[in-house]
Write a structure and sequence with these properties.
Order of helices and strands: HEHEHHHEHEEEHEHE
Distance between the termini: 81 Å
Shape: globular
Strand content: 15-25%
Structural class: alpha/beta
Radius of gyration: 21 Å
Largest sheet: 8 strands, mixed
Number of helices: 8
């Protein structure tokens, strides 16, 4: 009769346990410097100003986390749905749109303001996700490190599949590392959450953005958004004891 094999249980060594704890550490060792801001940049306020002007006023390498939701119509313009601004999407259509070159300038300005190993959470639609955003990153020290998909739970537009999701590309200023920087490890890469408000066509999820900023910053740190729209990042920052700095053309 063949010899029966005994099941062996792999025991984790103290070295492996220590390594796992180090990788998934809840401690953040990166700290942002103290900011001295112009009087016109008031924290926790809905500032009405141009986003590029706002970014130019920030000191270099001083901000740990930024959000950017560019106002573009990548899917709508490339696929030419034709009825936007008529039977649907009137509010979104009326907004000032950002050309690709302007979006790149926003990303470059944010990249300059971020601290080393700081993060930018960049919202994109599925068109830009498929086409790629590499041209926006030229001249920066930003690297793509992750992606979070936001399931809005709504029935959207589309000739074929109907859109119900948006995507948040996670970028990090070099040096790229997670240990000692990213301290929340229960965020899934697909999140179901309703938009923070229906009063703005670009409204984003407050809870998700709050968890993301909490993962890469400390309480009391500044969070910036130079194209704030509905100012959902402001609400997320206040809920998570962060200081918000941001603006929008419409205030």
């Amino acid at each position: 009769m063949p010899a029966t094999r005994q099941k062996t249980t792999k025991k984790s060594s103290p070295e492996k346990d220590a390594a796992a704890k180090a990788v998934f550490s809840n401690e953040r060792t990166v700290n942002a410097p103290r900011l001295t801001l112009p009087i016109s940049l008031r924290p926790n306020t809905r500032l009405k100003m141009d986003g590029l002007e706002f970014l130019s006023m920030l000191p270099e390498a001083a901000i740990p986390v930024a959000f950017l939701d560019p106002q573009y119509r990548g899917v709508l313009e490339k696929l030419s749905y034709g009825n936007e601004g008529k039977s649907r999407g009137t509010r979104r259509s009326a907004m000032t749109q950002m050309p690709e070159a302007v979006i790149a300038k926003f990303v470059q300005g944010i990249g300059r303001a971020l601290i080393p190993s700081g993060h930018l959470f960049l919202w994109v639609d599925k068109f830009h996700l498929c086409q790629g955003v590499r041209p926006w990153l030229e001249g920066t020290e930003l690297e793509i490190v992750d992606l979070v998909t936001w399931d809005k739970g709504t029935f959207g537009m589309g000739y074929r599949t109907r859109r119900r999701a948006e995507h948040c590309i996670v970028l990090q200023r070099r040096p790229v590392r997670a240990k000692g920087v990213w301290k929340v490890h229960n965020i899934t890469d697909v999140v179901l959450e309703k938009a923070s408000t229906r009063e703005h066509p670009h409204a984003k999820p407050v809870e998700l953005q709050g968890r993301l900023m909490s993962a890469v910053s400390n309480e009391g740190d500044f969070v910036i958004d130079p194209a704030a729209g509905s100012f959902s990042v402001l609400h997320a920052a206040l809920q998570n004891n962060r200081k918000f700095l941001g603006c929008d053309l419409n205030g």
